[in-house]
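Fresh eyes needed here. I'd like your take on this protein's tokenised backbone:
***
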Amino acid sequence: MIDFDHEYQMTINGGLTTSDTKIEVYNPATKSVIASVPDATKEQLDAAVIAARNAFPEWSRTPLAQRQADLIKIAEAIEENAEELIALLTREQGKPRAGAEWEIYGSALWFREIAKQTLNDEIVEESDARRVITRFSPLGVVGAIAPWNFPVLLAVWKIAPALLTGNTILLKPSPYTPLCSLKLGEICRGILPPGVLSVVTGGDELGKWMTTHPGIDKIAFTGHTDTGKHVMRSAAGTLKRLTLELGGNDPAIVLPDVDPKVIASQLFWAAFQNNGQFCNATKRLYVHEHVYDEILDAMVEYAKSVKIGNGADPSTQLGPIQNGAQYAKVIEYIDDCKKHGLRFAIGGEVDAHARGWFIPITLVDNPPEDSRIVSEEPFGPILPILKWSDEEDVIARANKSQYGLGASVWGKDLDAVERIGSQLQAGTVWLNEIHQYSPHQAFGGHKESGLGCENSLHGLMEYTNWQTITLNKQVGF
């Protein structure tokens, strides 16, 4: 078991280290400082990269079966420390127990399932004269930059495939949520050889150093689209490989044949899971005019029953906004709605004297398509609900976005559901369900929602180079 009471330190080359300068970490439910973590220096990053490069040759030659076994050991260690990790995740991120439990046990599941994956050599030709195969070789050193909304699971989405394919990896967690990641680094110290996994903490400067560092071969990043563009520009100097999982403005389309009272709770959680701080949250809800009023009323009633509070309270269903900067951003969207005279069906009034960064559930009643709340990504507990009547029109409205991460369609007419879903421009389209993920299911974005994908064999390939080897068997010399 890992000691969760001592100082938070970085893992570099198999050892624990700190720095002279620190970053304070807050509990978003109380705005109180709960820990301080190292603010890594450029020299410490260089040391982590050198350790990763030194560890790479042996790790890449380690038999796949051994690397798979090590991933299973990490999963087991996460489960052994699950209660402490769940409590810590709630304190630093704000999510209630159920969400924290889903993320921590989900992280263990991801390690187990990724460990089952294999990229077999592709036999292009096999004859008496020649053999041609294409194999998948590791890239080298991976730099992983994880976000604050799902800080553990979205780090694991990068760590597990990188390790399985024979790469070494450096993880930079968000400075808002670094605590569980630092503990994950400690967990892995007892399992992986030194240098194979390092965890370094810091702010924006550390991220810039990583994306330009000549010793890092790939950046795997999850975060805002604008930041992703900066990552892409920074990585261009050394032609780093990139996986970018970026923002979304996911539409949901509701057909007229649904039962409003039955579907209201599903639509609510499609939008408000993790307090709307979710790249794949429904951010635009298009409801057919025949059921619009009934669904709006049902969602308002359901919202009134949902308890918002400190995630440490077992009865809490929605926690706070994770950090002050995001809190201010969501308030900006609420103020913009007020400025333009938009109607709130519920919410819209923020208690400025609340102990934590809490914002009430807010539903915006049929705002204009060009309003900011519809065209942008607020990343918080505010949802525009819009009317539609014409199928072709609603598909066009749903697709009219720079983003294309996820989408969903809801209805009893399965032909209509599939017909509409097939025309939506998104990396994942859920039909009569939402937020179903799997280590074996490709996840990526269209348009400005990302580059490449995570999970599945397709995602695994992103941590490899394609290498074709030819053999002339008829040696004439």
The two ends are 61 Å apart (CA to CA).
